[in-house]
């Protein structure tokens, strides 16, 4: 989940430069270092070492489970459709 969230944040930083509200560096709500809900070190439910349902070594459906959790994060509503597809593609290739 850490990799997926970081990928989304980096993607948003790269592509949303024209809209500061959609830049994690400018918006604490979508910045994992400032929002504990999307910080894997602070939120046990999205930490794959703490949550066995999203751990690749413990669950065969970990990708789908991570995707389902990712869709519940605040990041989901801030991503456009193309960015969501890129995130899904990224997760499928992990």
| Count of strand segments | 0
Shape: globular
Round the Cα radius of gyration to an integer and report it.
Answer: 13 Å
How much of the residues is beta strand, in percent? under 5%
Unreliable spans:
none
Helix content: 40-55%
Distance between the termini: 10 Å
The description of the largest β-sheet is: none
Give the averaged pLDDT, no decimals. 97
Based on secondary structure, the structural category is mainly alpha
SSE succession? HHHH
Number of helices: 4
What does this structure look like?
Helices cover about 45% and strands about 0% of the residues. It has four helices and no strands.
Give the arrangement of secondary structure elements.
Blueprint: H1 2-15, H2 62-70, H3 74-78, H4 81-92
What are the salient characteristics of this protein?
single chain, 94 residues, mainly alpha, 4 helices
Summarize, please.
With 94 residues, the chain is mainly α. It is built from four helices and no strands.
